[in-house]
Amino acid sequence: MRARRHGWLLVGTVLLGYATTACGDTQRSGTAAGPSASASPSPSASAQTPLSAEELKSLAITSEEVPGNRGISADERDPSAAEGNTFPPVSDTSCQTMLDALDAGTASAAVDQIFNWKGGIYPGGSVLASYAGTEAEDTFARLRTALKTCTDFTGVGYAGKYSAHVATEKIARVGDESIALRITVPIKEPASMRNGRRVAVRNEQHIFVRVGHVTAYYSMLDMNHSDHFPMALIRKEVGRLAEAQRG
Fold this sequence. Notes:
This protein is of the alpha+beta class. It has a single domain (3-246), classed as PknH-like extracellular domain (Protein Transport Mog1p, Chain A, 3-Layer(aba) Sandwich), CATH 3.40.1000. Helices cover 22% and strands 30% of the residues. It contains five helices and ten strands; from the N terminus they run E-H-H-E-E-H-E-E-H-E-E-E-E-E-H. It has helices at 14-22, 53-59, 93-102, 135-146, 231-246; strands at 3-4, 72-76, 86-87, 109-115, 124-130, 152-157, 160-169, 177-188, 199-211, 214-223. The strands form two sheets. The protein has an eight-stranded antiparallel beta sheet. Strand 7 and strand 8 (177-188) form a beta hairpin. Helix 3 runs antiparallel to helix 4. The longest helix has 16 residues, at 231-246. The N and C termini lie far apart (41 Å).
């Protein structure tokens, strides 16, 4: 069995290019706090047509809404593009379940976003995904259960083998359910780039929100520092997703 990696998962995807350019190998470790109920719950998981990729794109944050950014994209996920982007499952089963849940592989439609921040070296990312039936709730439940036992794992990414530590984080209430985690990965720096450090730490924040039949997954990457995805942008986007499902 091989685990697929696509969308905005920092493990073995687009951000890896930034991290390997700066520091070598990476993958992710995370921290998840228990789910928090939103003050304005979204529609229940009754029979409802899932939002299409075009509808998700129309609800995504745009570059005009983020002052001083260097470009924000929103692209429909192409399932066929993920077929060749595979790696062996990670060492811990519960951690693999976590990665699969974040990856939105069972979604009916998904849109990947990249946020190029003003003055930032590393971009942020998000995945908006819609599901049929109760699959959004089920995906969140799998993630929450997996994070009860997932603390450390090893795996293989584009830059080779890595070891990751996962830890939960507290998060302000947003959506119907929300979980935050942080993944840290030690990276041995090349001699030419050490800048006083022999080992750097790839530090990733991951936030997973469910609102009705849709999930919104946000990630931030930094090296040797803890960065956070702007909560104001999360609230704005999640609010739109909730409103779209009330119509």
